[in-house]
Amino acid sequence: MTIKHKIAPYLLTVGLLGGLSGCKLTQPIQQKQAIETPEAFQGFSDSTGIAELKWDKVFKDKKLLALIDTALANNLDLKMAMQRIEMARTSVRMRKAAILPSVQAEVSGGARKFGDYTMDGVGNYDTNFSTNLDDDRLLPAPILPDYFVGLKSSWEVDIWGKLKNRRKGALYRLLATEKARQAITTGLVAEVAQLYYDLVFLDTELDIIRKNIILQETAVETITIQKEGGRANELGVRQFAAQLLNTKSLEVQFLQKINDTENRLNVLLGRFPEKIDRSTSLEQTIALNAEAGIPASMLSRRPDVQQSLFMLSSYYADQQAAQLALLPSLNITALLGFNAFKSNLLFSPGSLAYNALGGLTAPVINRIALKSELKRAEAQSQEALLAYNKVVLTSFQEVSTSLKRIQYTKRISDFKKQEVQVLQQAVATSQDLFLGGYATYLEIIMAQKSVIEAELTLAEVQKEQYFALIELYRSLGGGWE
């Protein structure tokens, strides 16, 4: 019995075993349950969320909208995301092409000399003595050329759906990459808006400081005159002057903050540092709307949630493909072209050659590697499920935190407004009492210092209100269409 005959029964056994196990391996793997969100955000009723609005409906400031448009056109992170989408799209094309037969055009030529004392050498030598051969069919000797021009094809028939699942996984990755770009867009819109309003409120705080500088300069002039009139001493003059210098240093600090913020914003806009054109008034610059919507429907808008879901689906498809790789595969090869050992006869009708071969192959030695790949795919799928659950939890937490932050900052702002009014009245009262001799210059200084701190704190709290609304808009997945 030849070696070929010994192997044939073994291959047949492998094919039968593969067919018997195919019923089990082709069953889809059950995917574990993902996390479920609560029916409503704690302490808030269902409503139509602001995330359903485009940014030009949320932000009213035309100068901010112009900056957002510039950022969306020039931001480098967004451009890199577009290139990642193109790479993912190429992977989908490659996976799609793998399902179809591959066809290659081939032009080849070679030569071989058989040994005189080999079966081929003796056979070729003896063949040329046959009376049945004409001159065109005589074999060249001692070197035998071989020319071929034609098409060669190979095709793995996707009988189990392995290649289809690989294509599906690549498609889900493409969709995840697109969602990643949308997530960058959402974050970019929010960050541009935050930096813009940071600049607007820094301008407001700078105005507060400069107004207080004017008041304090007047106070220094007044205390100096009173010293000359004998109603104050040098200590009072120096303390008022020290307070003025401290406030002027605050002015420089805020100028530095403005410069740093402008530079950070210019990076997002994809340009070198330059002055940011911005509004001087906060009236009607943002839609002050804290509606969130139903968690399950609104969080599903978030691009990072959708991205995680697509990645979960892609790893699930990879797991299915890794499972199906353990089954036998059907491969078909074919050839069509002209083949001859004489170049002048290559394109004659008699040189036409073709063949087709189909075979069923089952993994034997490499099953350990394939099973290891399946285990890895299972672990990746489980990790993707946990990552999805984490994104959902984080998203819910961000929305809930933003909603509460809006509520609390509004209450704090109301108290701070009242505090500023009371302290401003206290400054006026202390000045009147000082002129009447019932208050010291130290009490005036403390009152003025308290007003500055309260006004700056009020501006910070109001800025936090805007930031909370912007963060809510981002955490709900707003900022893209």
TrEMBL record:
Subcellular location: Cell membrane
Gene3D superfamilies hit by this protein: Outer membrane efflux proteins (OEP)
One cellular component term from this protein's GO annotations in UniProt: plasma membrane
UniProt KW keywords: Lipoprotein, Membrane, Palmitate, Transmembrane, Transmembrane beta strand
PANTHER family for this protein: OUTER MEMBRANE CATION EFFLUX PROTEIN (PTHR30203), OUTER MEMBRANE PROTEIN-RELATED (PTHR30203:SF30)
Entry-linked NCBIfam families: outer_NodT (TIGR01845)
Protein family: Belongs to the outer membrane factor (OMF) (TC 1.B.17) family.
Record's protein name: NodT family efflux transporter outer membrane factor (OMF) lipoprotein
Organism placement in taxonomy: Bacteria, Pseudomonadati, Bacteroidota, Cytophagia, Cytophagales
